[in-house]
Amino acid sequence: MTQNPEPDSPARRMRIVVTGASGNVGTPLLRRLLADGHEVVGLCRRIPPATPPYSGASWHRVDLSYASAHDLVEIFRGADAVIHLAWGFQPTRDVDHHHRLGVGGTAAVVEACRLAGVPHLVHQSSVGAYAPVSDGGPGVSVDRRVSEDAELGGVPTAAYNRHKTAAEQLLDRHERKHPGAPTIARMRPAFIVHAEAASGLLRYFTPALTPARLLRALPILPVDRRLTVPLVHGDDMASALAAAATSGAEGAFNIAAEPPITLDMLARELGARPVHLPYRVLRQLV
């Protein structure tokens, strides 16, 4: 790990490439990196409007579901670090596209870092990459935490989890074959939320035509009482990513806020009465 600057010395201005730089996490990350005085190069499928914070970065239009490492080398050349955020969520039925983007895109990014001589890669993984620690199903609390050395594997029935695991396994193979080229930090955040991304997050969990105000009209909330959802705010995730990139951190890092969200907390925020419905029953209904 490289040493952090002395407290009374100015931080070194870095050139940092960010994939998925206009998304849920990319937007607060841009604000953080630009506020710290870094040069930011953004990659995304659609160039965002020339308004803050996007106007402070330079942009390349790249679809990582089809890009090869050689397509990225010249963009990456001269970068001090690459922060890899690009991932696919919607539509959930398009599993092949999400695999090409998440796993294939990660393969292209890490190989381009090696070919371009980028010294450091910060890869956004997920707590979803961990193997299940209970037969209760995804989203069901087992009342214990896992550390960064816990077994990976994901929930087999969830494509997102399988792809996050596959991407980390790909990084494992690259590190064995090319140690230190680049050094890699693996950020494993909980679910990332912030107000700017609220509408997109709502579409991820509810039917597209569901108005947000309908959720607060629900008299009851039928969810398994063991539900525990760890969250982290987008600004805090941006701080963690920026710290990893500028310090040269290596290894895996779990990132979540305290306390995790429980059924009672969720029901209180929605003004609904919590009603226990076992996970397996909910899954069949869905």
Assigned CATH class: Alpha Beta
| Biggest β-sheet description | 7 strands, parallel
Which whole number gives the mean pLDDT?
88
Strand neighbour order, sheet with most strands: 3-2-1-4-5-6-11
Assign an overall shape: globular
Number of alpha- plus pi-helical segments: 9
Bin the strand percentage. Answer: 15-25%
Number of separate structural domains: 1
- The structure class reads alpha/beta
**N-C termini distance:** 46 Å
CATH-assigned homologous superfamily: NAD(P)-binding Rossmann-like Domain
| CATH-derived architecture | 3-Layer(aba) Sandwich
Strand and helix order = EHEEHEHEHEEHHEEEHEEHEH
Q: Kindly state the percentage of residues in helix.
A: 25-40%
What radius of gyration results from the CA coordinates? 20 Å
Q: What are the low-pLDDT stretches, counting only 5+ consecutive residues below 50?
A: 1-9, 137-141
Q: In total, how many beta strands?
A: 13
CATH topology description: Rossmann fold
Task: Give a description of the structure.
The chain has 286 residues and is of the alpha/beta class. It has a single domain (15-197, 230-259), classed as NAD(P)-binding Rossmann-like Domain (Rossmann fold, 3-Layer(aba) Sandwich). The chain contains nine helices and 13 strands. The strands form four sheets. A seven-stranded parallel sheet has the order 3-2-1-4-5-6-11, sandwiched between helices. Helix 4 (159-177) links the parallel strand 5 (120-124) and strand 6 (183-189). Helix 1 packs across helix 7 (234-247), helix 2 packs across helix 3 and helix 3 packs parallel to helix 4. It is globular and about 55 Å long.
